[in-house]
Every structure is written in structure tokens, then in C-alpha cells.
Amino acid sequence: MNRGAETKQQTARRFVGRLSLVIAFFALFGCALLARAVHLQVLNKDFLNQQADTRHLRNEKISAHRGSITDRNGEPLAISTPVDSVWANPQELASAVDRVPELARLLSLDPDQLMRRITRSMDKEFLYVKRHISPDLADQVLTMKLPGVNALREYRRYYPAGEVTGHLVGFTSIDDDGQEGMELAFNHWLSGESGSKRVLKDRLGRAVENVASIKPPHHGRDLRTSIDLRLQYLAYRTLKAAIQEHKAESGSVVILDIKSGEILAMVNQPSYNPNDRSQYLAERYRNRAITDIFEPGSAVKPLIAAAAIELGKYNPNTRIDTSPGYIKVGSKVIKDKRNLGPIDLTTMLVRSSNVGATMVAMSLEPNDLWQILYDFGLGRPSASGFPGESAGLLSHFSNWRPISQATLAYGYGMSITPLQLAQAYAVLGAQGLQRPVSLLPITKPPIARRVIKAETADAVVGMMEKIIAVDGTGIKAAVAGYRVAGKTGTTRKYAVGGYSNDRYTAIFAGVAPVTDPRLAVVVVIDEPSAGEYYGGAVSAPVFSRIVSDATRILAIAPDDIDAVQDFTKAVALR
Length: 574
Prior knowledge:
By secondary structure, this protein is an alpha+beta fold.
């Protein structure tokens, strides 16, 4: 019995010892866990929170949309539409490299090229896979649940009028920065400022929750322009038809509001569609009406006549003897098509006499003639603010020789832009006042600068009106029901070794209606090659069609009622 009791006691002691050991172990383990918890939750809390944030919190950009561009009536010319851009963390995407070809096929990318881009960017955490795709396609990408692949909301520029307003509006880069046209000129106004937010992401990089807003986005401001989209379509359609009809290389049309100086329309051919980036070629997207220069030819003669009258040397009835039909200046002989004999200043314009214009210009002091032409806006930018605007070329009178002054009289030896010519004719229509050219709508009458006296301007406009008469060179510019005034111009283009005999520029510039001029329109068609090349045959009909439709669109009342009645009777008799 004693031995059995002793054995039981030993067994009990061993059990107690083992139990105590287990309890001690668990107590020590619990204390270790408690110590570790205290270390993690109290002593090392900031470090661990920082590590968690580093792994799961990200700062993401909130894209700001660019301001819209509209015409004067609120019609959209450029708007921003939401799109998504797919990006990836190459280091994370490398774990699913076998699925990269599947991603490439979905995004219509070359798999090998995408794989090379990813492998070259393994030291980076951000790589654009494809930018500016539809939100639906971006959702399809996200449903693939590829590690490190995400979508970012951005905005893409869209131009509703396409090539009709392409040269004016311009375009933006893929990062939404203005590159050409009004997008560039007013980039500071249109651009927005992106914001940022903090988001919580899971281990696959998918956003789980928006944690905080760091910086709100500031969207760009809208821009209303002076352009009337109705007139822009009209000018574009008419010019394009003329370019095709006459097989010309290029052309431009400018329509100015004489009362305000606003640019109502400005079109060029060939054009381009700013929605198609493959068409972004300099020879297509440059705005020829502002950047390209040409010799105006006889279209400058009304300005010469204005200078002659303003300086008190001539009046519309002053006689000029152009016999025997030519004049020699230095070694150059300047001719008319035929000997017009003694003519007055008005006939000089109506019959477009080079001899008469030369005699008038040579009779004026060089500094006086230069100053008036310069005041008309020749030889200097119009200050429209359009990027790349050319100043043209009007050499200073101190550099003139007799032949320089002579050729200047009929538009050679100087170069201007279509916009400069439109601004000069607007001065004539505004009774000698020059208003700043503007691409933005004018809310109050701008301060005008007087270039010539009102009487001078009225006299020249009256003389130009006779150019549209039956025996004038601009008869094809006539508009039923309206009195219009204008001047043709035809210039030979300069080539290697001198002026070409088969390359011409056809020009017509004018104002309408004469009673109260509202519109100044310039038509320039370069290198027509279908047979006709004179300004009166090629550009004058374009002027007529544009003014005829523009006056209806703008509800400008007819000022030639008798002509309207005659026209109505003629139609009734048919």
C-alpha cells in the first residue's frame, strides 16, 4: 500500500509540474503576445500606419476638363468629352506577364511592342498602356483583374464643326495643352488645373474607397468667340466649291464686321479635321488667312486713290493722261492692256489702269504714301492675337527707289495677308475709322483710330461701287438687291528668275452694303488652273455668293430696292 500511494504521489507531482510548466509557457507566450501588441499598437504605431499607407493608400489625379470654345451665338466649336486612360505598374504587372497579349488584343495594341514597353519600364511604377479610350472599353480592361492595371479618367478634345473651323480653333496635345489656333492663343484661359485625392486600394491595385480630397480640380473657363458659325459654314462651302471648280492650289476668305472689327468668319483651303490627329501636318493646319502673305495686285489701288485724295492732290474727277498707254520708270516699262488716254481717278479704278495708278503714286511724297498705307494696317500685324500672324512686308520709304514706288501702285513689291487686306477695306467702309481686329465678341464699341477723313473714305467707296457696274472689272461681284463696292486683283506669282507667266493669285476685296457698310469680305484664290485666273472671273463670284447669303443670314436690309423690283419682275416673266 505504501508503495502504491508513493507512486500515485509521484505521478501527481509530475502532473502538477508539467501543468505548471504548460501554464508558465502559455503565460510567457501571452505576455510575449501582449508585449508584441503593445509594441505594434503603441510604440511602433506610426511606423506601421505609414507602411500600411504606403502599400494601400495612393494619391490619384483628378483631371480638370478644358473650357469649351463656342461661336458668338453659343454654338460649340470645341468641347471636352470624358475618356479613360489605362495605366499599369510594370513591377506588379510582371507577375501576370502571360496575360499581357490578352490585354494587348483588347486594346488593339501590338503584343510584342507592349511587352517591350513593360520590360523597359520595370524600374518605374507608372506606365501608360493606352490613352483616351472609351469608358466602356476601360471597364472591360478592369474586369480582367490584372495586377497593377488601372484606369484614369481624363478628357479628350472634340471639335463638332470639324474642318470648317479647324484653322481657327486649332487643336490640343494629348495632354490637353493648346498647340495651334485659338486653343493656343487662349490656352491660359481654357486650361484647367488638375486636383488630387487619396484612395484606398486592395492588393490588386483596385480602388476600394476614396479616403480624402487633397486638392479640388479647377476646370477651365469657357471662351466665346466672335465667329458666326453660320457664316463660317457659308464661307467654307463657297470657297471649297470655287477651289474645286478652278482647280486651285489653295484659298482664303475673311469676313469682318465693319462696325466692330470682329472676325465673323475665316476659312482656308485645303483644310484639315482637328479630330483626326493623322492630319496634323503644318501645310494643312496653318491658318493661311493670317500667316500666308501675297502681293495684292490691283486690290491695293483703292488705298492708293485714298492716299491721293487724303493728301489733297486728287479728287474722283481729277484727270490723268495715261497716253500712250504705257509709262517708263527707270528701265521698266509699265503698260495697260490698251491706251485709255485721259481718264479721271474714278476711271483709273474702274478700268484698273496700272499706268494711271503709277502716275498717281509717283506724284505723292514717299513718306506720305508710306504713312497712309501703314496706317491702313499694311506692313504690321493686326494685333488679333492669333499665333503666328504675319506682319507682311511694306518696306520703309527710306528704302524706296522710283521703281519701288511705281510697282507699289499696282500691288507689287509689297506683301500682305488676307486679314490685313480685309482690315484695310473695313477702314474704307467705316468712313476712315480703324477698329481693332478681334477674335472675341465686342460688348461695347471699341475705340477707333482715324486713318483718313470720312469724306475721303466715302469718295473711294463710291468709286469702287462703279467697279461692280457693267463696264467694270468686278461685275461678277454684284449682289441682287444690294449696292456693293470692291476691287479685283490679279497677280503673277514670283518664281525663280522672275515672275511666272502661268501661276497667278486671284483676289477680290469689297464692302457691303454701300449705303451703310456692314461687311468687309476678302477672297484670295491661289493658282487657279482651270483656264480662268483673273480676280474678276475667279474670286468676284465667290464674293457675290458669300455676301448674298450673309446679308440674309444677318438680316441686313437691301439698299437697292429698284434692283430688287427689277429682279422680281424678271423672275415673274420667266
